[in-house]
Specification:
Helix 1 crosses helix 9, helix 2 runs antiparallel to helix 3 and helix 3 packs parallel to helix 5. This protein is α/β, with parallel strands linked by helices and about 210 residues long. It has 9 helices and 5 strands, in the order βαβααβααβαααβα. Bound molecules: adenosine-5'-diphosphate and magnesium ion. The site of adenosine-5'-diphosphate has 16 residues, from helix 1, helix 7 and helix 9.
Length: about 210
């Protein structure tokens, strides 16, 4: 029996972390077993790669190097955690996955989708998610919601134009992969969004 692999995507500050927490509460309350991980990271080696990517000292890192490091962290996570669990029939959630590379490095940084697809082909060809939950909220709206200083800071650091390109990338990816993407309107209250996520997971027979 093959398990189910579900990823969460969306722009900075749209509420991914919060929604994953709410989903965990629902799953625990209903006695549903799951495994949650995140990208980049999720294994000792992948977390070390994450530290290199996020190290402020590494200003000279090229976009290509960054994209390759994300792919390296991803293949380690797949082999160590995701693949074995899916083989055992488990339910696996991941906070960000290859669509983040496509939207951020491919679209927003301008490397192109093909470059990202090619370097990720080995890493995740057979491990595309069964379902990708895209929390749909524009970066402007996320910023306006003033969800907190943290999200505002992160949005300001890289610049709104960059995040708008990320958002455009996500919309393109969702448009091209309608069978895999569940586009969830994330403009409502956190409870409303959480309800929509649970409803989609039920509708798809995942929980
Ligand atoms: N539905 C919502 N309504 C209002 N504020 C929200 C909502 N969802 C999330 N937030 C707030 O927005 C900010 C960013 O949320 P977070 O879960 O950290 O987003 P992400 O993980 O996608 O970056 C947080 O301060 C959070 O409290
Ligand atoms: Mg988060």
């Amino acid at each position: 029996m093959k398990g189910k692999f579900i990823t969460f995507e969306g722009c900075e500050g749209v509420g991914k972390s919060r929604q994953i927490k709410l989903l965990e509460e629902y799953l625990v309350k209903n006695g549903i077993q799951y495994y949650l991980t995140r990208e980049p990271g999720g294994t000792e080696i992948s977390e070390q790669i994450r530290a290199i990517i996020l190290d402020g000292k590494n200003l000279a890192m090229t976009d290509e190097c960054e994209a390759l490091l994300y792919a390296a962290a991803r293949v380690q996570l797949i082999k160590e955690e995701i693949e074995p669990r899916l083989k055992r029939g488990e339910l696996v959630f991941c906070d960000r996955y290859v669509d983040s590379s496509l939207a951020y490095q491919g679209k927003a940084r301008g490397l192109g989708y093909d470059f990202i697809r090619n370097i990720n082909a080995y890493a995740c060809d057979n491990f595309m998610p069964d379902l990708t939950i895209f929390l749909n909220l524009s970066p402007e709206d996320a910023f306006k919601r003033k969800g907190g200083a943290d999200s505002a800071d992160r949005l300001e650091i890289s610049g709104m134009e960059f995040h708008k390109r990320v958002y455009a990338g996500y919309l393109e990816l969702a448009g091209k992969n309608p069978e895999r993407f569940a586009v969830i309107d994330a403009s409502g209250t956190k409870e409303q969004t959480s309800g929509k996520i649970v409803a989609v997971l039920k509708e798809k027979g995942i929980i």
